[in-house]
Structures are given as structure tokens and as C-alpha cells.
Amino acid sequence: MRITKISEGKRFLIVAALYWVIAIVWCWRATDGEWLYFIIFLQMAAMYFLPAMGVLWMVLSAVFRLLAYDGRN
User: Got the DSSP string for 10-68?
Assistant: First the structure.
């Protein structure tokens, strides 16, 4: 049986996808407080693997936080 070698880039993509899947499964039936941890978890995963996605998540979470804050007042 031949062993297939996976390149380092593909390993990072697999681990990043697993982070997203774990975060989504973990917070599937989450309360509002748990969704905050979900967003933080995704930000950490995205910033570690894909810096552009990390910036996007930070911007989106800031916008959603401002919208949620505006809705409470």
C-alpha cells in the first residue's frame, strides 16, 4: 500500500476547515453569550490560517455588535 503525502498547505486548509466545523457544531444551539465565543473562535482560526479572513471577521463582528447595540437602545 502506498502512503500519500499531503503538502503543508493542504494540511493547513484541512485544519482550518476542521476548526470551522468544530466551532459551528459546538455553537449550533447556542445562546447569545455562546455566539460571542463562536465569533471569537472563528476570528482566532481565521487570523491564524487566513489573515484576510481574520480582518473580514473582525469587521463583520464589529458591525454586528454595533447593530445589536443600536437595537437594544
Answer: HHHHHHHHHHHHHHHHHTTT--HHHHHHHHHHHHHHHHHH-HHHHHHHHHHHHHHHHHH
Q: pLDDT over 70 for what percent of the chain? A: 60
What length does the chain have? 73
Predicted TM-score (pTM) of the model is 0.40
Give 14-32 pLDDT, tens digit per residue.
777 777 777 667 666 666 6
Total structural domains in the chain?
A: 1
The answer to whether residue 16 is domain-embedded is: no
